[in-house]
Amino acid sequence: MKYKTASLYIDTLLDFLYPRNIYCIVCKKGIKKTQKYSLCKSCYEKIKFIDLCACEKCGKPLEKLYLPTKCPDCLKTEHIFTKAFSCVVYDDNMKQLVHRLKYGKERYIAYHMAEIMVDKLKKEGLSEIDFVIPVPLHKRKERERGFNQAYLLAKYIGKAMDWNADRKNLVKIKETLSQNQLSKDERKKNLKNVFSVVSKDIYKGKTILMVDDVYTTGNTIDACSKEILKASPKNIFVISFATGKNT
Ligand SMILES: [Zn+2]
Ligand SMILES: [Zn+2]
Question: Which fold has domain 49-243?
């Protein structure tokens, strides 16, 4: 069986097999079926959901009563996407959750993260999206990991909102070093010419929603946006599950 077919097959099978809302996805305690996002009450209450006090460009949380309405990073750097949203603050609990999804291969977590993301999109009134696009992984990395977590999120969001999840048209054509260990300048250089849009025609005049698990500096999203903008879309919105504070 080809890798892609196998991977799609596994996704469908896991969707079918995994019992939802039985255990808390953070602490793994048993929960009532009615608990939101498959979280127990105590773990739910610990999550710092990002509300209206957020940067109007990148969606990072801001201190209450903070003025201006952009975060320090967005006051200095111009991001080229239209607007980004994030759902929760990337604290230790959320870091572990994302880690378990990406490296522990607990794929079912993506389903519940996507539920949180869908509610955020609804709250922000994002209703007309033509393409939901995950930040792509390089082919080799995706093969190594077995899946792209951003695609799982995009897939579930697309399903819930009846939007088209598009994993094939934006591709990562070069392997890169991990952004974490690089300086600010190196990070930008590291992402130069690594993404590419296969067919530009289909994005023309369309509204795009980019999806990622964590928004950090926005460098990756900017690098993707740069390529997508060559195809003249109408807007590029961004949704990530978590983001750090930027003060
Ligand atoms: Zn819990
Ligand atoms: Zn910002």
Answer: Rossmann fold (3.40.50)
